[in-house]
Design goal:
Maf protein, six-stranded mixed sheet
Length: about 200
């Protein structure tokens, strides 16, 4: 079976990819599996695409294997698109719970109809020689006034309600979330690409 390194140390994201890429007939290796869990790639790009490319190529080169990495984040209209590419370090805060509280505080006076937002994800696959392909996905919705979670999500999931639903990603059934999510959309496109790539 073909093997691809997933360039993340985020257990929640790794678990999602196990489900999202199940149809690609590949074995996913974590950074821990290949002894690179301590490797830190600096995200110097100014877009999700640039950061995903930087990470995918760095992990491919370091492992001498094909590698897949993504960059994703939450873009809130009332904050001018923030936190965007800085979602994982928004407000220079270290825990997801504190970042969610910080974001909600930033827009506490914004009315419901203006709390629109979207999640964006760009997935890149690279070989040790360079970038091979990328896919992207977006999921539109809105930001809640308080956290609504049933332990089914991570990151900003407990404060994001996808369009057409009345539950947050933190409350929705996992398979529904995978169908709707930015990462799910980008991953399905990537599965199609992987079927046509000669990965050694």
């Amino acid at each position: 079976m073909r093997q691809i390194v997933i360039g993340t140390t985020n257990l929640g994201k790794m678990n999602e990819y196990q489900v999202l890429l199940a149809g690609a007939n590949i074995r996913l290796l974590s950074l821990r599996d290949i002894g690179l869990s301590a490797m830190d790639v600096e995200e110097t790009g100014t877009t999700f695409s640039e950061n995903a490319q930087i990470k995918a190529f760095a992990y491919a080169k370091a492992s001498n294997r094909w590698a897949l990495a993504d960059d994703s984040g939450l873009c809130v209209d009332a904050l001018g698109g923030a936190p965007g590419i800085y979602s994982a370090r928004y407000g220079d805060i270290h825990t997801s719970e504190e970042r969610r509280r910080y974001l909600l505080d930033q827009i506490k006076d914004v009315p419901e109809e203006k709390r629109t937002a979207y999640f964006e994800c760009v997935i890149v696959i690279a070989s040790p020689e360079g970038i091979i392909a990328q896919t992207e996905g977006r999921c539109y919705g809105s930001i809640t006034f308080t956290e609504l979670d049933e332990g089914k999500g991570f990151g900003y999931d407990p404060i994001f309600i996808p369009q057409g639903y009345d539950k947050t990603f933190g409350q929705l059934d996992e398979m529904i979330k995978h169908e709707l999510s930015h990462r799910g959309i980008a991953a399905r496109k990537m599965v199609e690409l992987l079927h046509n790539l000669a990965i050694s």
